[in-house]
Amino acid sequence: MNGLQSLQTLTTVVADTGDIEAVAAYKPQDATTNPSLILAAATDERYQHLIDDAVAYGRQHGSEQQEQLEWAMDRLFVLFGCEILKVIDGRVSTEVDARLSFDTEATVARARRIIDMYEAEGFGKDRVLIKIASTWEGLQAGGELERDGIHCNMTLMFSFAQAQVAAQNQVTLISPFVGRILDWHKKADGVDGYLPDADPGVCSVRRIYAYYKKYGIDTQVMGASFRNVDEIKALAGCDLLTIAPKFLDALALCKKPLQAKLTPEWAVANCDDPAEQLTEAEFRWRLNQSAMATEKLAEGIRAFAADTEILESTVRRQLT
After folding, report:
1. Can you give the pTM of this predicted structure?
2. Is the Cβ–Cβ distance between 201 and 180 less than 8 Å?
3. Catalytic residue among 86, 131, 187, 296
4. Domains and CATH numbers, the chain
5. I need a surface site. Which of 130, 179, 253, 287 has the fewest CB within 10 A?
6. For residue range 172-182, what is the model confidence (pLDDT) as tens digits?
7. CA–CA distance from 302 to each of 10, 109, 203, 299 (Å)?
């Protein structure tokens, strides 16, 4: 087996792309999208018909232009998700508007609308993960949706406290951002990189994985946002890994099979954290105490919001 094939025996491999043809080519179990990936895909003329459909949908469902735009944007994200679901057996992650990251009620309402759109296209709740930023408000929204049977993927996760509260809310999945953690520490430490076992992003995911497995937490860990293949290899055995096409290609070229680095047995032996239930105040304080997590969470929300606004400008032009 090559590196990719062996990884697929250890970990659920997820394609991190909005390119439908790329998903079809790699045939992963699941796929993830976000505003940045959808923006990149939407500029491709192959997918212009999806924008046309979304614009028509928005006109039908909204009376004022802003309302039409919101409906059209949700529809566009769902259309990309539906096309992906046609070529995979598992689930697709679709993100709620990042500008709702500090509004629990609005996040829940938007998530329910997205699920309704998927169900209207013949895809049930079991095929969709709603992606929500891991703010306190987002984590509470995730818990409320899970109680309604809507499964969530908590994204923009950079701290152990975020992972703890995600577990408290019994969300389906979390996405710790390995590469973005690495980026921050490289800049802060003034270094070019780290050995895989010392990579701060890798260490963050390993700590969360160990905690979840030691205490029997059902929430799954999906490492995300990789900067190199070594990070992926160092997390082989994690529940899921969402990987960009360029790294899927690189893994397929690896002739040596990967070995599991994370196992439930390893987790029990390597978890030093006590089981905890965090209050809102404790969560906010611990997040505040991590400059990296505070900065990266805010930066990620701003970036996703900015890409959403760029995509909105394209849709708005067609609406008018």
Report:
1. 0.94
2. yes
3. 131
4. 3-319 (3.20.20.70)
5. 253
6. 999 999 999 99
7. 34, 21, 26, 5
